[in-house]
Amino acid sequence: LGRAADAYAASKRACLAEQGHAGACLACAELAAKRPASDPDREKDVKRALGSAVMLDPESTEARYALGLALLEKQDWTWAIEHLAAGLATAAKPADKALLRYYLGYAQLKSGALEDADRELAQAERELPEDLAQRCAFYRGVIAETQKKGDKAAAMFRAAEAGPDPEIARAVVARRAAATAFPRPDGLHAQLMASIGMNTHPTAAAF
Questions:
Q1: Second label for 63, Cα 20 to 30 Å away, from 71, 82, 97, 140?
Q2: d(CA 15, CA 79)
Q3: In angstroms, rounded to a whole number, what is the distance separating the alpha carbons of residues 194 and 135?
């Protein structure tokens, strides 16, 4: 723990020394996130570092993405939408755009902006790998169900049930058997992909 604290302190000094370098702040946030959840300063330091990264480089897709996910974890839908939308506007790679649309659509769904959510999720569904497209179909089914569009909801849930992730298929079955379900998104890429899963990522929960 002492070595981890020393490493974080060194990274923080580097971040401060390299003013104008958002990447240093992102590295600082990543280190802070690895500290024990019991650390009372962990969340504050992560948010501060990510906020600094965005302030230093407002055009950084990576910084906007990371901060947007942190806000999703806190269920701060309004600010998550703002940063994810900003990240989408600056993203260059199609895969990054698709993933940002996925999270943006989810945040809009949770905020009640159903038409916007369905539009983003529909496009993400066409561009994402099959497992994440399956989730998009599920959320679009939830949206259509809320809007009392029964035929569309049924079609979306059928598509979600037919996908490769058995947990999503079970979620569809459970939704038929109960009035509500509680899906949350997962599916990061790059360095986060190896460490998360449906039931392990902070923004994920069992259906």
A1: 140
A2: 24
A3: 19
CA distances from 32 to 35, 63, 128, 188, 192 (A): 5, 15, 30, 19, 15
For residue 96, the surrounding DSSP H or E stretch is helix 94-111
Q: Phi, psi (5° rounding) for residue 179?
A: -75, -30
- pTM greater than 0.85 (yes/no): no
Instruction: Yes or no: say if 164 and 173 are a contact pair by the CB < 8 Å rule.
Output: no
Using one digit for the tens of pLDDT, what is the confidence trace for 1-60?
Answer: 455 555 555 555 555 544 457 766 777 776 777 778 787 877 777 777 777 767 777 778
Q: CA separation (Å) from 76 to 43, 107, 108, 110, 167?
A: 14, 9, 11, 10, 26
Which residue in the block uniquely carries the two structure tokens 């929960």?
205
Q: What residue type is assigned to position 15 of the chain? A: C
Reduced 3-state DSSP string for 138-204: HHHHHHHHHCCCHHHHHHHHHHHHCCCCHHHHHHHHHHHHCCCCCCCCCCCCHHHHHHCCCCCCCCC
The tens digit of pLDDT for each residue in 104-129 reads: 999 999 999 999 999 999 999 999 99
Q: Which residue has the tokens 């994810």?
A: 84
Token pair, residue 147, equals 């809007």
